[in-house]
Structure formats: C-alpha cells, structure tokens
Amino acid sequence: MASNRMSPFDSQNTFIHGRMLRDYFMLPQVGRVDDIWPSYYVQAKGLQVVYNRALVYQQRNKHDLMVDLREEYLGCENNLQLVQSLARDPESLLAFLPARAARGFRLYRKHFSREE
After folding, report:
1. What residues make up the domain containing 46?
2. Which residues contact 1 (CB under 8 A, 6 or more apart)?
3. Residue 32 CA to chain centroid, in angstroms?
4. Rounded mean pLDDT of 16-35?
5. Cβ 26 vs Cβ 10: under 8 Å
6. Contact yes or no for 87/44 (Cβ under 8 A)
7. Contact (CB, 8 A) for 100 and 28
8. What CA–CA distances, in Å, run from 97 to 23, 61, 114?
9. Does residue 94 fall inside a structural domain?
10. Would 31 be classed as within a structural domain?
11. Among candidates 112, 114, 104, 113, which has minimal Cα distance to 26?
C-alpha cells in the first residue's frame, strides 16, 4: 500500500509503464479531474512518479476560466478525502465516482489479463 504522499500528474506529455495501463483509465463524468484522480489511484497502487522537463510543446486552446473552475469543483471538494482514502485502500476510488464512471472503469479493466 502506498503512503499518503501522492502528487497529481495529468495525462499530457506523460509516459505510463505498460503494467499500469490496466489501472490508468481516463475517468468520464468527473470534470477536469478525469486524469488527476487516476494519477492518485496508480500511485496508491504503488506507481512511483518521476517528473522531468516536457519532451513536446503543447499549444493550449483557449479556456474559459469560469467553465474550468466549475469543472474542477468535484476535485476541489474531494481531492484531500480521496487521497486519504486511497492511501488506506486504493479500490476506494470507486466510491468517489459517479455510477457510470465506476462501471466504465470496471469494463475497461476487463480488457487486461490478471496475469500481467
């Protein structure tokens, strides 16, 4: 089990070890934490994160800060509790997800062999 020292990372310009693909699922219906919550989840399952400089440049599209804020609300309200819960039990992630997102994650994981 991982410690509660977790650091968020997003899905852009990120390399994920093949063993972790089963657990790194871009979550639908959770707003702008769709990649952040999976980053906490894989760390709770033992992934160690290494940060370095970006290998590619991304020209960002225009953002409406108020729209972004609304979409980040779920994370703002739940990130600390989520990380604390994941440190105790990584599978507790499912309790934080909308039902359809949890179902999607379970379906995604069925595509991977347990023996990997």
Report:
1. 18-109
2. 44, 87, 88, 89, 90
3. 10
4. 92
5. no
6. yes
7. yes
8. 15, 27, 23
9. yes
10. yes
11. 104
The predicted-structure confidence for 27-53, as pLDDT tens digits, reads as follows 999 988 999 999 999 999 999 998 888
Amino acid, res. 106:
R
The pLDDT of 57-85, averaged and rounded, is 87
CA-wise closest residue to 50 among 4, 3, 13: 13
Q: Which pLDDT value is given to residue 89?
A: 97
* pLDDT higher than 90, residue 68: no
Residue 87 in any domain: the answer is yes
Residue 52, Cβ neighbours under 10 Å: how many? 7
CB–CB of 44/1 below 8 Å?
yes
CB-CB contact of 53 with 38 (8 Å)? no
Number of domains composing the chain: 1
Is the Cβ–Cβ distance between 89 and 100 less than 8 Å? no
Q: Residue 114's pLDDT is what?
A: 67
pLDDT digits (tens, 9 = 90+) for 77-86: 899 999 999 9
